[in-house]
User: Fold these one by one.
Assistant:
Number 1:
Amino acid sequence: MSVSSVTEGIDQIQFEHVRVLVLKDTPAGKTTLVDTGFDEDGDELVEVLEREYGGVDRVIITHGDHGHHGGLPSVMEAFDPELVASANESKLHEAIDYEPDVTFTDGDVLDGNIRVIEVPGHTKATSALLLEDRGILISGDALDGADRAGLPAGYLLPPPALFNDDHEAAEINLYDLLQYDFETLLVFHGSHVFEDPKGKLDDFLVEREWDPRPE
C-alpha cells in the first residue's frame, strides 16, 4: 500500500489490485473518499485515512464492483461519513448493508461541483465524476489506463470484456464523455492520463468498427 499525490488536492491510496482517491477540501473544509477498495483493504484504508487526513467526511461509490465498495463497512464504522451512491446501481445496493444518504443519477451535480456522468456497460450504472471547475474526470471504471492491458501508459481503454456486463455498451457509451471538457483523466486501474485524454479517447472511439455519432 502507498499514498501519493496525483494532482493538487487529490491523493491516491494504492493497494495491490486497485486504488482509491481522496479529494481534499471537496467540498470546502471536507474530505471526500472515492471508492473503498476490497474488503481486505478496509482496515488498512481506515488506518491511512486516520493518519493522513484525520478521517473522512464523505464517501462516493462509483459502481457496484466489490473492489470499489468492499472496504465500505470498515470506513463507515470508523468515521460514519455521508454515503453517496447511484440510485440506479442495483449491484451495489444488493451488496451493501447501508442506505446512501445521497443518491444520484446521470447529470446530477454533487456538493463540490462534481458532475455525475453515467456510463452503463461495465455495470448497470457505472458513474464517472467530473470535477467541473478543475477539468478533471474520474473514470469510475468506465475507462482504464492502457498499460493495464500491457500497452503504453498515457492512453485509455475500456475495461476488459471479461469484466463488463455489456462490453459493446461499455464502449458505445464512452461517446457521452466527449460532451464534456476535461484535461486530466484519473483511473482506478493502470496509469492516469494527464496529456490530452479527451483527444485520445476520441481517437480510440473513431477507430472502432462502428461510430454512432451523426456525420
Number 2:
Amino acid sequence: MREKSPTTPESLAAFDALKAELAGAGVVEGAMFGTRALTLGGKALACLSGNEFAVKLRRDTPEIEAALALPGAQLFDPSGKGRPFKDWVLIPEGGDAHWAALAEDALRLASES
C-alpha cells in the first residue's frame, strides 16, 4: 500500500480556495475515505488524499484521458491494493495548478449524467 504524505497547510488552502470557487454551483464540503471532499447533491466530485487531489471524471471521455496525461497522474486507488476506481484520477502533489480545471470538468460531467 502506497504511503500518503500528511496534508500540508498549502494543500488545505488550495482545497479551500477551490471549494469557495465552486460554491456558487452548489458544491459543498463533505467527506470521502476519511478526508475532505467536494460534493454536489451528496455525491463526491473530488477529494484530498494527503497532498494529492483525486477527481471523479467519466471513464472513456476526453476529460479523463487529458487528466491521465498530466505528469504523474494515475487512476485513483484509495485502498492501495491494485483496485483503482475507473472514473477517478489522482493528481500528484504539486499539480494543484490543474485542480480548478479538473474540478470544473468533474462538475460538468456530473451535471450531464
